[in-house]
Records
---
Amino acid sequence: MGYEPRFTITPRLLSQVEAVAALRERILGAAVKLSWIPALQKDTRTRNVHASTAIEGNPLTLEQVRALEEGREPAASDPRSRREVVNYFAGLRFVEKNATKKHLRHEDLFELHRILAGEVMDQGEAGRYRTIAVRVGRFVPPAPGEVSGLMFELLEWWNQRSTGMSPVLSSAILHYRFEAIHPFADGNGRTGRALALWELYRRGFDTHHIFSVDEYYWENRPRYYAALEEVRHAGKDLTGWLEYCTEGLCQTLERVWLRVQSYNFRSPEKLVLRPKQERLLELLRDHGAMSPSELWAALGISKQGTLDLLRPLIAAGMVEKVGTRKTGRYALRAR
């Protein structure tokens, strides 16, 4: 019979898919002729690596992950944490290299898993389906003897029937089903998120490789795990999971749009947005002009910390100060 996902196209899901499509077109339209795409790709890859490994408990900060990507040794980091990060960089490059591959095989999954999980497995062997029973919290995945057959069905669906639906949906379905099967003894979370990204790449959704959806999952890990768990409570109905994932993709693309704009202003080579700078820009976009005190209260940081965030944004021409010295407020600068 094969694998057949169950879900309903609700008004909310349809609205989010349409919003994602519109944002994607806006971003790709702005990015077509820009020389800074490699810099944005590098930044996106770093954010993906940091977020996906952090979800699994890796303690390295975004700046430490960036240091590893640049060949620098981050201070106060342990060998295993570094290896997980280095592996994930290699895994993303493998996915990028094979982005246009139309037919995926078990061997492709084994190779990706070998790259991601090599030298960091707590149990089992990298690049081979598990031969042991595992537990994920209260969830008990299928027995080892069922894994190969279930993965055969998933690959058959991925290679054939998934191509008839939006990649926004097929990526999320692939992500969930892989995690439900839990085919490897360890490293399934990282591998499943990499496969979801691979689906967006090979279906031409993220042609420039500048979307980092894993940041959305990492920033609210309890909600991420709850959304996965809810599918099981709903009798394997994926509707809620798809709504969650499309909401995340929509938020991701809104952030990418901010990053595109930051690279398109003055001195783009000097401005790589930090997470709190992105949050600051989101606040100004949603609320209009804000006073310094409103900003530092909303960001939960000091006055000096807020000014440190604002300074490069003002220098780049993204933010401007309006009003008098005493009543001055900060606002996004109109293009």
Note: The longest strand covers residues 319-322.
---
Amino acid sequence: MKVGLGLYPHLMTQENYRFARQAGATHIVAHLPGLSKRGQRPVPPEQVWTYEELRDMKAAMAAEGVEMAATENFEPEHWYDVLLDGPQRDAQMEGLKTIIRNMGRAGIPVMGYNFSFAGVWGRARGPWARGGAISVGYLEDQAPPQDPIPNGMIWNTVYDPQAPEGNIGRVTQEQLWDRFERFLKDLVPVAEEANVRLALHPDDPPLPELRGTARLVWKPEIYQRVLDLVPSHHNAAEFCQGTVAEMTGEMDVYQAIDTYAAQQKIAYVHLRNVKGTVPNYYEMFIDDGDVDMVRALRLYKKHNFDGVLIPDHTPGLECAAPWHAGMAYALGWMRCAIQMIEREG
């Protein structure tokens, strides 16, 4: 098991690569959407990531002693019609294939993604973690109204400000799974050739429907349908343990880890702890939630999981650098727990 750190565009700096290494991480998971809109990428967001960009990003991390383990999420502009089954669908699929080929050429082994319309939505913030630390959660009575998704928007991002008035309408489970199956059948063969694993994130919040659109993996057992749809080592799970713990279903979080780790279907892990399940839950410090994290780590070890685990979120600590302090705490705990478990034999 390897310890990594996830970084959003505004955190992708040489200083934070050094911070990651100093805090004990050996790998970085880079969440790339937003680079163009933040001015960190001098091209329109619809332009797919080039081999040179990915190569240079990986080299910048390597210069500070950390390895680029994965990228997370396509830009909405890269694939909105793949999701919506619109007129640019086939052209955008060719762009996604180019990204995967460029990743393979650059030696970046995993592409994490979330096949949904509403994306991560409805989070609230409050002093819910230990000692009143600020954390995020989902509270049914505090969630905003589930208005339909406007035209020109996907994943809470406006990709076309000139889109006509109206909304994308209802998307049924049947439509969602049909589009997803076509996506996998088009992209998995390319991922196999490029040796890049496609890793699906479950839905957060894990509700069956959001803003009039169906959700894909909102119970742990639904992951099996995803993996069986196109059987391949390169069709895998971006296993967000926190989101899975928030779910209700036939499996609990331990059964889900045991099941999918045994199949070698977990590409990498978002390791965080939570309190409660949908529709009311909070994200907690890694050692202070409903999940026995040592038990969870032992299950990964049981199945010889050798991928990367990252603390994707953590409550902030009360200091001048809340995010850095929270991540350093989580990384330190993870390193200690993993070393203990690996010494158990």
Note: The chain has a mean pLDDT of 96.
